[in-house]
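Whiteboard transcription, Tuesday session. T.W. wrote the structure tokens on the left side:
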């Protein structure tokens, strides 16, 4: 098979200006139906309900991760660094492009309800019968397994894994810049060009030339700001809670034999927890949102109310609770029940550290399975040190645990029945 395209292809991209494709395999992968499906999955899930610009897709992010990886590798090749294994170029680019191909609609929320894992789906799509698998097998019979191993972080060369999965990988660099662009905030910007210039392959890993330390500090500060301002935003959390509750309720009804007026088969498989790759690939956000429009008309008042809230953005309000002890939570639960609310659904305690994000931790924590390679600086004497040993700024945000408990609830029934609510709770819920 011809490996290089006769003419380079380009995609116009608001973050990287242009994305360049030179390999036939990459071009063929982009044109598979599994990759095209990513156009119908938003990168930031429900964040568009908080930041209305956040409509960008996993398709654009995946192309972006590919482009950053391509730039890093070309820089290594241009400079002729002997520590970069040249034969790993294509496997690295394919893994970068495909790393999120298993994401479903509103991934993180659905994964919590149905206990699925997008990385497992990514590997199934790559390894099982699919157009992607077909394109990869044209390279060599074991090529799909190699690409999957990079994504699962079991590939024998850690330098390849670290391109798409480390504390400063192509994945994070793209999503920070892209999410900042589409949400319209300025926190996420940093000097990508500068960072790409100071990366070096060195003894089987990727390191940063010490003179690039300040550019890396800027990247880590941006990441810190983005987590608190965008990813942990309490309004986004409220919409995620409602989304999870819709699926929890739908599953409860489905298992209990409730007859839905509208239930397409891919959603039925999801609620039944028995999905094949073929079913899974039919799930996208258009289908989920159509379901919500239909379910808003269902007989079950709880399901219909939750769908209506999600579609029309009547989200739950929240209060901050310093110490959510059992006594207080019981008191709230009893009060909610007494005015006809359902505490199983209408009160939810949330703490943002349940999210799969960390700001920056140089070391692995006890029991943690997925370690991300730390950021290493290389000085002029060829000595290596972890960045927090050299940078005061990085040290000051490392492992910083900020965060508050929030209690989410629908405000309308409380307001309507405020005369029946004890004074202490009235104060807590600011009902005076
Ligand atoms: Zn990604």
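and on the right, the sequence the group agreed on:
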């Amino acid at each position: 098979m011809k490996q290089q395209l006769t003419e380079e292809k380009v995609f116009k991209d608001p973050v990287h200006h242009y994305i360049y494709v030179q390999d036939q395999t990459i071009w063929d992968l982009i044109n598979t139906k599994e990759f095209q499906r990513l156009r119908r999955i938003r990168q930031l899930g429900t964040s568009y309900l908080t930041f209305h610009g956040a409509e960008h897709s996993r398709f654009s992010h995946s192309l972006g991760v590919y482009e950053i990886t391509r730039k890093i590798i070309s820089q290594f090749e241009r400079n002729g660094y002997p520590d970069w294994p040249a034969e790993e170029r294509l496997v690295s680019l394919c893994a970068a492009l495909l790393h999120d191909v298993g994401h479903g609609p509103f991934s993180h929320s659905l994964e919590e309800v149905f206990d699925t894992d997008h990385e497992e789906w990514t590997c199934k799509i790559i390894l099982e019968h699919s157009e992607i698998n077909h394109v990869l097998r044209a390279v060599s019979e074991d090529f799909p397994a190699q690409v999957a191993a990079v994504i699962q972080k079991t590939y024998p060369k850690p330098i390849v894994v670290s391109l798409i999965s480390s504390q400063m990988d192509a994945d994070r660099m793209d999503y920070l810049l892209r999410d900042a662009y589409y949400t319209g905030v300025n926190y996420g910007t940093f000097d990508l060009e500068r960072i790409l210039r100071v990366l070096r392959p060195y003894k089987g890993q990727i390191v940063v030339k010490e003179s690039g330390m300040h550019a890396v500090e800027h990247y880590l500060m941006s990441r810190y700001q983005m987590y608190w301002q965008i990813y942990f935003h309490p309004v986004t959390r409220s919409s995620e809670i409602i989304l999870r509750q819709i699926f929890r309720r739908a599953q409860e009804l489905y298992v209990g034999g409730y007859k839905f007026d509208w239930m397409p088969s891919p959603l039925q498989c999801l609620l039944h927890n028995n999905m094949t790759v073929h079913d899974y690939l039919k799930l996208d956000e258009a289908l989920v949102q159509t379901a919500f429009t239909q379910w808003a008309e269902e007989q079950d008042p709880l399901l219909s109310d939750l769908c209506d809230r999600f579609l029309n953005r009547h989200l739950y309000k929240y209060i901050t609770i310093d110490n959510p002890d059992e006594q207080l939570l019981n008191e709230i639960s009893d009060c909610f029940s007494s005015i006809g609310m359902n505490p199983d659904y209408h009160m939810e305690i949330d703490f943002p550290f349940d999210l799969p994000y960390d700001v920056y931790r140089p070391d692995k924590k006890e029991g943690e399975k997925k370690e991300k390679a730390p950021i290493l600086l290389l000085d002029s004497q060829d000595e290596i040190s972890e960045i927090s040993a050299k940078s005061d700024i990085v040290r000051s945000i490392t492992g910083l645990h900020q965060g508050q408990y929030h209690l989410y609830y629908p405000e309308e029934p409380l307001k309507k029945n405020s005369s029946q609510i004890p004074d202490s709770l009235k104060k807590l819920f600011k009902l005076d």
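Someone added at the bottom: The first helix runs from residue 24 to 30.
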